Structure formats: C-alpha cells, structure tokens
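User: Teach me something about this protein's shape.
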Amino acid sequence: MGKVCYDNGNIYVAQLIPNHEALCQRINQMLLIGYYLLNIGYCAMTIISWQKIISFENLIEIIASKSAIIIITIAFMHYLNIFLLTKFIKKLI
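Assistant: First, the predicted structure itself:
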C-alpha cells in the first residue's frame, strides 16, 4: 500500500511545488519512510499487547479494531501532512 501511494503521490506533491522535482521526490520519500516506520512500530506494539483469542468471533473483532486504529492514524497523519505542506510550502521553496 505504501509503495502505491508513493508511486501515485508524487504527482500531487509536484502540483504543490511546481518546478522543484527533486524536492518533491525527497518529500515523497520521507512520507514513504514515515509510513513504513509507523506501520512497523504499530505492529510491534500490537504484537506485544495482543490479547488471548478464545473464538473466531473474537479474532474478527480484534483484527477489525486493530485495523481500524491504524487506518484512522494513517488518515489523520495524511491530512496533517497535507495541511503542513500547503501551509508552509512557500517557506520550503
């Protein structure tokens, strides 16, 4: 998923910062690294705190709640990145 966002996201970053392809590429690489670090950290914390599974329904419930948490976190960080890039774009150039 991160690689797909990386491949397609460069177009949107390039629209924010026209005529600065190298800067766009570096911003996109930093976003990809942040995505991977967030997922690795979340997986490590989830494995440490994993509850004992007693039924199939319990398994589905735990997986759904853990997936929802990471999706909401990534969505929040995505919108925060968009906000920060659009607000401080002139200072980057």
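Now, about its shape. The CA atoms of residues 11 and 47 lie 35 Å apart. The first helix runs from residue 2 to 16. If you'd like, I can walk through any region in more detail.
User: That's plenty for now, thanks!
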